[in-house]
Amino acid sequence: MTQTIRKAVFPAAGMGTRFLPATKATPKEMLPLVDKPLIQYGVEEAVAAGCTEIIIVTGRGKGTMEDHFDRAPELEASLEKRGKTALLEIAQSVSKLAKITYVRQPEALGLGHAVLMAKELVGDEPFCVLLPDDIVDATVPCMKQMVEAFNRTGSSILGSEVVEGEAISQYGCLDCAPVEGDERLLKVRDMVEKPKASEAPSQNAIIGRYILTPRIFSLLEQLTPGAGGELQLTDGIKALLQYESVYGFTYEGKRHDAGDKLGFLKATVEFALKRDDLGPKFREWLKSFPL
Ligand code: UTP
What is the number of structural domains in the chain? Predict the structure, then answer.
């Protein structure tokens, strides 16, 4: 029987250099899409997938994330006193989302190293990894789709999307084969990091959603750090392939790279247009905006 997925790891200790100067003193993960920080979208997605324990890998200067998911007694008391019940509900609901634990990554030594920081907190069970700057807008939350795929296979699952043309050279790329009878699953043979488009084994890119079996931790520990002392998660998963089946999963939904300025702007516009309270007026304003 496959084990239940209960824990989700959020690597959030990176330096966010693509978003400077905003990220000099503010964590990238706290940038808001309309009015909600990026990391909260991810945590809500993990909770919707059935996770009850959230592990956030943080670093220096990232304390506002902890405050965000904590109670805010002064704010709550003030809102209550003024009868602002809807706002009170919003403020309180964030701290009730899940049990959240924090672990520090002392130096940004790569995504694989960040995941390794969660080893003790995860223990010997399969777990999810969500990169908070990949925001997936989907009818069924992306990680929920992936947990269902994990329940079918009992194996590690890598979130994947088909990208067009040259774009594959910006991603990890799957060397994979279709799985009969399951149109979204791909059996992974190998992975290539940022291949030239002409040499890419497929157009199936790896995105910031993973379900991994706990064997990944010992494999990450055995990796030799690459350039800049970084441990790559992809190298750990490549090692995992020698022991276990790994699948790609083409999720249903639309992904935004909100860690990139242009991607963030596009996501902001799309999310604002979808909002009942803001959408109609924002659409009207956009139409009248002289381009
Ligand atoms: P990114 O490469 O998108 O984030 O890593 P970054 O390094 O912060 O951003 P840029 O490229 O300099 O703009 C994906 C996720 O992995 C985390 C980041 O915080 C981000 O959420 N990460 C990355 C770590 O937690 N530790 C690391 O050493 C590297």
Answer: 1
Q: Could you list the residue range(s) of the whole structural domain that residue 16 is in? A: 7-275
pLDDT above 80 for 227: no
Tokens describing residue 132: 């908070």
Mutation pick for ligand 1 pocket among 133, 170, 232, 256 (CB with most ligand atoms within 8 Å)? 133
Q: Which residues does a 6 A CB cutoff place in the pocket of ligand 1?
A: 11-19, 28, 57, 105, 108-111, 113-114, 131-133, 259
| Mean pLDDT, rounded, for 162-189 | 95
Nearest CA owner, ligand 1 atom 15? 131
Q: Which of 89, 74, 5 is nearest to 45 (CA)?
A: 5
Structure tokens at 24: 């000099």
206 burial via Cβ count (<10 Å: 0-12, 13-18, 19+): buried
Q: How confident is the model at residue 2 (pLDDT cuts 50, 70, 90)?
A: confident
Query: For atom 22 of ligand 1, which residue has the closest CA?
Result: 14
Is the predicted pLDDT of residue 228 greater than 90, yes or no? no
Residue 1 in this model has a pLDDT that exceeds 70: no
In a domain, 286, yes or no: no
Q: List the one residue out of 238, 239, 41, 213 whose CA is nearest residue 127.
A: 213
**Tens-place pLDDT, residues 75-95:** 999 999 999 999 999 999 999
Question: For the domain that residue 263 is a member of, what is the CATH number?
Answer: 3.90.550.10
pLDDT at 289 over 70: yes
